Amino acid sequence: MQAVELLALVESVQKLKCETQTVEVKAAHLGCPTKLYPTLSDFSNQDDGGVFLFGVDEASGFQVVGVYDAQDLQKKVVEQCKQMEPAIRPLFTFCEINGMIVAAAEIPAVDISERPVYYRGVGRVKGSFVRVGDADEAMSEYEIYSYDAFRKRTQDEKRQIVAFRRGSFGAIFHVREKRAKESD
Description:
The chain is an alpha+beta fold. It is 37% helix and 22% strand. The chain has one domain: Schlafen, AAA domain (Methyltransferase, Cobalt-precorrin-4 Transmethylase, Domain 2), CATH 3.30.950.30. The protein is built from six helices and ten strands. A four-stranded mixed sheet has the order 1-2-7-6, sandwiched between helices. A two-stranded antiparallel sheet has the order 3-4. It has a two-stranded antiparallel sheet with strand order 5-8.
């Protein structure tokens, strides 16, 4: 992202007055947000990735408030990214708006074979998230299993039934026939 694109993104967010599937707004004028893990996870787990927009305050109508310290913000965001599995490598862009610094951290999508990306501090089941609109939703066990099945090339519909006995289906059809006769 170039500085011109960052300016356009800020204008777009201010016009829409909302976050989106790929944009998360954080004020960061008093310090670095401490819990970016859910959004880091869901941005990495979607095909388009996502962008953190630091220095814009959602609570004050998406006004530019600037970041507290651009250098420290980068370091602290990178530290949180390193706590993800696999680790995330953000790309930062900065620009100045009305004398205040605004920052963007682009979070790339991770290859589908490496998903789900999760926060190591709580593990795969509790640390994997998916983005739904502007919300971070915990992944279901089925969603996590789907990624594992893709990676391992598991095809549940083609699994062999091991404990099948000849005549098992005959018993089922016999019960159905019996019920059909009783209802007549």
